[in-house]
Design brief:
Organism: Neolamprologus brichardi
Distance between the termini: 123 Å
Helix content: 40-55%
Oligomer: single chain
Number of helices: 29
Number of strands: 12
Strand content: 5-15%
GO biological process, one term: DNA-templated DNA replication
Mean pLDDT: 75
Low-confidence stretches: 44-154, 353-370
CATH class of one domain: Alpha Beta
CATH architecture of one domain: 3-Layer(aba) Sandwich
Protein name: WRN helicase interacting protein 1
Family: Belongs to the AAA ATPase family. RarA/MGS1/WRNIP1 subfamily.
Structural class: alpha/beta
Largest sheet: 5 strands, parallel
Keywords: ATP-binding, DNA damage, DNA repair, DNA replication, Metal-binding, Nucleotide-binding, Zinc, Zinc-finger
């Protein structure tokens, strides 16, 4: 082999046997690395240019500087040394001659440094040193630091923002303007009014476990947030928010475990708010029982469904149910007026010289920088009516209408003069598209409306019958479901007073099945009006109900079928007396005297019979 090949092999073998020092990053053999580490780790950072490998110490490593560091072209050796940090294993070094160390906890240098050298290197300062720098330098450094994450748009923040900024935020207006105090909470005076039972409990933070039941947009979640804000201000309780739509049982158990520790160590209660609590099944709701019972957590559940059907009876007995009503038109008007006043929108035709209408955040009025935004009072009134008591729909529709007009109109004309924006009633209606109808095909409103339709037809009120029918169909109800109920009504409430009513109802059901919505709506309307105008008789319904009562209240075995009424298809049955003595009615020209009821029920009349007669 050639000499070059042998040399290459020696080099490769040395590379395989060499070990790199983790301090000075030089290569040593396995036999000498331990001795070198003893010297390298124990020796201080005193020699920046080592002559031999065995006497070498760890190299000096330059400190990291932030993006705001200012590097000067000529720096003295003393300033360079002051900016240096120890080596990787500086933990083993003594305190003498140790450069300043940057702690991770506060990010400030604890070593002695001159303000000048710190400023020239752009390193972080202590609080005292930063105060000595001067306003200009401090503001420069602060401007270069990343802005802290926002904790949410509260009402106080909303009042400081201009209309254009506030209406252009990512959050819905209903979330931005969510009330933080009971004084800003409208429409539920029966529950949280000054004279209500719950108001002093909330003021004293003696809050029991609650189930907030009400339609969407009535203020259930807002009331929970007000309780949370009060608890945070007074520091009397810890508030935790969960949603039953995205929370598992294990997460609930973890929160309860934290609540137990909080109560044991800090003597502080935990208020647990569960939104859409009806989404939890029965076993998941049972998780709360022992902890609500012993007071580990104060449960506040919000639901749009009837708690009698959707919440466990055991959990329901441990909570107080607060029924929140659908917001009235007056309450919606107050909410919308508060919104336009907070945002800075002016109502057309009203005096706008109030200095409160001007946004002084930027040092000048809102009109000069953004242009006036007006809304018609009629538009607010229409919105209050059409949102159907849903504050969330009302506020978000207002935001949509204003945003649409702001995008269409250039707020600043070419000559920099402010340009006005007017939101009209048509803009509000366009944002809603149609009347917002509260109707849940699987919820309580479904049964409320069908009950109202049934009772209106029973009372022969054809106009009310049409209204409740339209309420259901326009809300998205299945027309075949309504048709089936009309068939039932034809026998239950009309019955023998007009036997043709059943034919009308069945024909309406078949027609709806053939053509569907929206064409079948007039067919259902015709049938509903026919049944409302028809004479009523519940004799069949009551007679059959008496039969069921008689059967269920019978004591002992039911009486056997009389032998003469039994069929006898075989010889054996005939020999046993089946069908013996039966009189075939068509064979007689006169009425036949024959018993058809069991012996103990002979003479009973279910049309007039009462349970007390048995």
């Amino acid at each position: 082999r050639s000499l070059s090949s042998e040399a290459d092999e020696r080099i490769l073998s040395q590379d395989k046997n060499s070990v790199q020092c983790p301090v000075c990053f030089k290569d040593f053999t396995s036999a000498t690395i331990n001795g070198h580490l003893d010297i390298c780790l124990l020796k201080g950072v005193t020699d920046s240019s080592p002559s031999t490998a065995d006497e070498s110490g760890p190299p000096v490593k330059k400190s990291r500087t932030g993006p705001e560091a200012v590097i000067k072209p000529a720096a003295s050796s003393s300033s360079m040394a002051s900016a240096q940090s120890p080596g990787v294993f500086s933990l083993f070094q003594g305190n003498k001659g140790k450069p300043p160390v940057q702690t991770e906890r506060n990010g400030l240098f604890v070593g002695k440094q001159s303000p000048g050298s710190a400023a020239s290197k752009g390193v972080k300062r202590s609080l005292n040193e930063e105060a000595d720098l001067g306003a200009a330098g401090t503001e420069t450094l602060r401007s270069q630091q990343p802005a802290p994450a926002s904790s949410g748009q509260g009402l106080k923040t909303a009042k400081r923002l201009s209309p254009r900024t506030l209406l252009a935020v990512d959050k819905p207006l209903a979330e931005v303007l969510r009330p933080e105090t009971l004084e800003e909470y409208f429409g539920q005076n029966k529950v949280v009014g000054e004279q209500s039972l719950f108001r002093p409990l909330l003021d004293s933070q003696e809050i029991p476990s609650l189930i907030l039941w009400g339609p969407p947009g009535c203020g259930k979640t807002t009331l929970a947030h007000i309780i949370a804000s009060t608890s945070k201000r007074k520091g009397t309780a810890r508030f935790v928010t969960l949603s039953a739509t995205s929370t598992s049982t294990n997460e609930v158990r973890e929160v309860i475990k934290q609540a137990q520790n909080e109560l044991r160590l800090c003597k502080r209660k935990t208020i647990l708010f569960i939104d859409e609590i009806h989404r939890f099944n029965k076993s998941q709701q049972d998780t709360f029982l022992p902890h609500v019972e012993c007071g580990t957590v104060t449960l506040i559940g919000a639901t749009t469904e009837n708690p009698s059907f959707q919440v466990n009876a055991a959990l329901l007995s441990r909570c107080k149910v607060l029924v929140l009503e659908k917001l009235s038109v007056e309450a919606m008007g107050s909410i919308l007026n508060r919104a336009v006043a907070t945002v800075g929108i002016k109502i057309q035709g009203q005096d706008s010289t109030n200095p409160k209408d001007e946004d002084q955040t930027d040092g000048h009025s809102n009109s000069l920088s953004f242009g006036f935004i007006y809304i018609q009072q009629k538009a607010l009134d229409t919105l209050a009516y059409l949102c159907d008591g849903d504050a969330r729909v009302g506020l978000n529709s207002l935001q949509l209408a204003v945003q649409a007009q702001m995008s269409k109109t250039n707020l600043l004309a070419p000559d920099d003069s402010p340009q006005e924006i007017l939101v009209t009633e048509e803009h509000v209606k366009e944002g809603l598209q149609r009347s917002h109808i509260l109707y849940d095909k699987a919820g309580e409103e479904h049964y409320n409306c069908i009950s109202a339709l049934h009772k209106s037809m029973r009372g022969s009120h054809e106009n009310a019958s049409l209204y409740w029918l339209g309420r259901m169909l326009e809300g998205g109800e299945d027309p075949l479901y309504v048709a089936r109920r009309l068939v039932r009504f034809a026998s239950e409430d009309v019955g023998m007073a007009d036997p043709a009513a059943l034919t009308q109802a069945v024909s309406a059901f078949q027609a709806c099945h053939f053509i569907g919505m929206p064409e079948c709506e007039v067919i259902l309307a015709q049938c509903a009006v026919y049944l409302a105008r028809a004479p009523k008789s519940v004799s069949i319904y009551k007679a059959y109900d008496n039969v069921k009562t008689c059967l269920r209240s019978h004591k002992g075995p039911l009486p056997p079928v009389p032998l003469h009424l039994r069929n006898a298809p075989t010889r054996l049955m005939k020999q046993l007396g089946y069908s013996k003595g039966y009189k075939y009615n068509p064979a007689f020209s006169d009425p036949v005297e024959q018993e058809y009821l069991p012996e103990e029920l002979q003479g009973i009349n279910f049309f007039t019979w009462k349970p007390s007669d048995s």
